[in-house]
Write a structure and sequence with these properties.
The protein has eleven helices and eight strands. It is α/β, with parallel strands linked by helices. Helix 6 links the parallel strand 7 and strand 8. Helix 1 packs across helix 2. 43% of the residues are buried.
């Protein structure tokens, strides 16, 4: 299979990133299936995508596309066997747990055609952590998106040592076809390119708050005042999702035993336990119920 032969994409995970990737692919002419084991998540994603399709109709990122119609054509499935039928690329966006990602890919390996390429939208893990578990390590690599996908249109293409050259070329070409600027990484590296820098900022901001050095608002104020940005690190994390930040921090805290990361994870968990996961929940570090951000 060549990049220009890719026609159907399976997006696994109906969360924020899965929704955005599905929209990006549908808006660029691809048939899209969204797979999630949670029926409520699928229903929620369908509503969110309909809203995004209307809101972004006419956006230059989707020039020439009938975005409302493209979104309406997206299908939703909870059965992996049905979802995998005749797909060319799988884009996975499940929580940051290598065992989970490996299990998801292993299940799809049973049902996907032989040609199907597996792409992982992991934001901090390395594809080699679950390449063998996937059942097709030569056809697996990281394809890491940034959000919002249509405007922060950069993707990291990161192979592991066993990724075939053909798979890399397919993903590079596919990324360009869906309006992304691909960056080809020459070796595995946690955090990829942008996220390696961004994660360092987040860690230091969370550490300052966890250790009681300053409050969330003042930490953000320090960043926005000096850097002249509309949001600080905590404001940006509200859009990423505090639950996502907690999953990443918890994984690396457990893997490394770093006491500061363990403390940071516990601090983030306090927000998650309250349901304050960010913009998607209406409340995170800040309150979005009034419509202000």
């Amino acid at each position: 299979m060549k990049a220009d032969q890719v026609a159907k994409v399976l997006v696994v995970g109906a969360g924020t990133m899965g929704e955005q990737i599905a929209l990006q692919c549908a808006g660029h002419g691809f048939a899209v299936v969204v797979l999630d084991s949670d029926a409520e998540a699928l229903t929620r994603a369908q509503g969110q995508l309909a809203g995004l399709g209307s809101a972004l109709a006419g956006d230059p990122a989707f020039a020439g596309a009938d975005l409302v119609q493209a979104v309406a054509a997206i299908t939703y499935e909870s059965d992996p066997a049905k979802a995998a039928a005749d797909v060319d690329i799988v884009s996975e966006s499940v929580p940051e747990d290598p065992a989970l990602k490996g299990a998801v890919f292993a299940e799809l390996d049973r049902w996907c055609p032989e040609r199907t390429v597996f792409a992982s939208n992991t934001s901090s893990l390395l594809p080699s952590m679950y390449a063998e578990a996937s059942g097709r390590p030569d056809r697996l690599a990281a394809l890491h998106f940034h959000q919002p996908v249509w405007s922060a249109n950069l993707v990291d293409v990161m192979p592991h040592p066993g990724t075939s050259p053909e798979t890399i070329e397919i993903l590079l070409g596919f990324a360009e076809r869906i309006g992304q600027i691909p960056i080809r990484l020459h070796k595995e590296s946690p955090g990829y390119v942008f996220n390696a820098m961004y994660n360092a900022l987040n860690r230091e901001a969370i550490t300052l708050a966890t250790n009681g050095v300053a409050g969330v608002e003042d930490i953000d104020r320090a960043w926005t005042t000096v850097m002249k940005t509309p949001r600080g690190p905590f404001g940006m994390l509200d859009f990423v999702g505090i639950d996502t930040a907690w999953h990443i921090t918890q994984y690396w805290a457990t893997a490394t035993g770093d006491p500061q990361l363990l403390a940071n994870a516990a601090w983030l968990k306090g927000y998650v336990d309250q349901g304050r996961t960010g913009v998607k929940a209406g409340k995170g570090f800040y309150d979005y119920t009034s419509g202000a951000d």
